[in-house]
Amino acid sequence: MKFFLDTAIIDEIKRADDWGLLDGVTTNPTLVAKTGKPFLKVAEEIIDLLGPERPVSLEVVATDYEGMVRQARELAKLGPNVAVKIPMTPEGIKAVKTLSEEGIKTNVTLVFSPAQALLAAKAGATFVSPFVGRLDDISMEGMKLIEEVVTIYAHYGFETEVIVASVRHPEHVRQAALLGADIVTLPFAVLEKLFKHPLTDLGLDRFLRDWNSLPEDFKPDFLR
Ligand code: G3P
Questions:
Q1: Which position among 20, 67, 168, 205 has the lowest Cβ density within 10 Å, counted as fewest Cβ atoms?
Q2: Is the CB of 32 under 6 A from ligand 1?
Q3: Active site residues
Q4: Please, which pLDDT band fits residue 177 given cuts at 50, 70 and 90?
């Protein structure tokens, strides 16, 4: 399972990368706006940090077919690792078809139903982003959507990779992994929480306390 970071904050990306856990980055206009920096500065810095292989999703803001295709072509020029985020609309799906024929990577975003995910795959999307947290927020079952999309894609052998998006907590990650989703895109705070378990902290304290109770000459130099 690949871990993407759902952020435009450079420091968070650097920290996840330092842990060796970063397979890609997703952004959206809200996340870029939160940085308070110019779009191109943020985008170029992320693309540079991730290198040529790991995908960086950058979103178009046009909503008409011509505008989306024009903006996507410009975004794709920023780096070989750019995947252009396109909203799940009829015009968007038409744009995905055109862009996939041109070899431009796409990520269909704002997906809330299995039927929408099916359309994205049929159009040749590289990635599809079903939003689980926002469905949970309106008392629907976000992870049910992931289960159905993963099942549908397996039936037909679609190569579109499923990015579990709008992730709110580690439980979403556990469920996504059990369902075999290709990718989770995580807010940095959720990635940090994945490390945590109270028994890990308690156990480590106990091990070190017991070790420190040994006489010093019982311990080899390299374990002092
Ligand atoms: O980037 C798409 C998605 O992950 C947004 O999540 O938390 O705004 O619902 P959220």
A1: 20
A2: no
A3: 85
A4: very high
